[in-house]
Specification:
With 288 residues, this protein is α+β, with helices and mostly antiparallel strands. The protein has 2 domains: 27-156 and 275-287, Beta Polymerase, domain 2 (2-Layer Sandwich), CATH 3.30.460; 160-267. It has helices at residues 36-54, 66-69, 116-124, 128-133, 146-152, 154-157, 160-178, 186-205, 213-216, 223-238, 249-267, 277-287; strands at 57-63, 78-85, 100-102, 109-115, 139-142, 183-185, 244-246. The strands form 2 sheets. The protein has a 5-stranded mixed beta sheet. It has a two-stranded antiparallel ribbon with strand order 6-7. Helix 7 (160-178) packs antiparallel against helix 8, helix 7 (160-178) packs antiparallel against helix 11 and helix 8 (186-205) runs parallel beside helix 11.
Length: 288
């Protein structure tokens, strides 16, 4: 397998050449995926145990949190998300069955997943996290091409209006509730910047925003802004999840102006209504 090495200053990002394949690289990988190789076997065993215990097949499993976004701390946990399919007869009952599986959360692992029917229903609604899962740079399992097929439908099913409102809400919540003091949690900057950049991407490029922060940030030209982000990234590489930092004026100003500007732009985006034909086809294919 071939990987692109990360360059923190320029903002490039590790990407897979082949889904589900793993390569061995040196310490350069540790910034984006710290301790990944040591955890891969543990996570994959957890997924096999889930399949056995619940009598399901996991079609797709990936990393969904800060490790996939590209700004993990050394003590960040692993946020594993998956989509599974059950035996066909379970979908034929008049009773509504359980449509999610979750394991108890601990300091290291947070693992949960959705039934294929739930996932497809949320895909129809342009669920932000699901659209991110399908772009994750860290994939633990992929079976039967389901994720590739669903990903191919993202451009036509994605509601820019719904996506913009989702990311604006996330960014505004982090900015207004977590970043108003003289000293703030370092990681909260990324929880405001990433969704703000995603909203910007949706409006300016009229497309599904990428998951990775390193790609999203390429759209900002300001040197002072980029330097401030590089500094925060470098410090977050060494800091724990509770680390504090002084408020960063250039980022404070940018967030305030960006959120106000794109709130108005987002409200102007027309609603999108899709039919279920393609998603019904996928559903029938993978439960059959």
């Amino acid at each position: 397998m071939v990987w692109k090495l990360p360059n923190i200053v320029s903002g490039s990002m590790i990407r897979r050449k082949d889904r589900g394949m793993w390569g061995i690289l040196g310490p350069e990988v540790s910034f984006y995926f710290p301790n990944l190789y040591g955890m891969k076997d543990t996570i994959e065993q957890q997924l096999r145990d889930i399949e056995k215990e619940h009598h399901v097949e996991i079609l797709y499993a990936c990393e969904s949190g800060s490790r996939a976004w590209g700004f993990a701390s050394p003590d960040s946990d692993y946020d594993v998300r998956f989509i599974y399919v059950q035996p066909a007869h379970r979908y034929l009952s008049i009773r509504e069955g359980r449509d999610f599986i979750e394991l108890p959360v601990n300091q290291l692992l947070d693992i949960n997943g959705w039934d294929i029917k739930k996932a497809l229903q949320l895909f129809l609604k342009s669920n932000g996290p699901l659209y991110e899962w399908l772009q994750s740079p860290i994939v633990y399992k992929e079976e039967g091409g389901f994720a590739r097929e669903l990903s191919s439908l993202m451009p036509s099913y994605f509601s820019r209006r719904a996506g913009c409102h989702h990311y604006l809400s996330m960014a505004r919540n982090a900015f207004e509730n977590e970043l108003q003091g003289e000293r703030v949690k370092l990681k909260k900057y990324f929880y405001a910047l990433r969704p703000a950049l995603a909203c910007r991407w949706i409006i300016e490029r009229q497309a599904v925003p990428p998951m990775e922060f390193a790609i999203l940030r390429t759209g900002v030209e300001g040197k002072d802004w980029q330097a401030a982000v590089d500094d925060l990234l470098a410090r977050k590489q060494e800091a724990d999840e509770k680390a504090l930092t002084d408020a960063v004026p250039v980022l404070q100003d940018w967030l305030e102006q960006t959120l106000d500007h794109y709130k108005k732009k987002g409200d102007e985006i027309p609603a999108l209504k899709n039919d279920t034909e393609e998603l019904d086809r996928l559903f029938r294919k993978y439960i059959g």
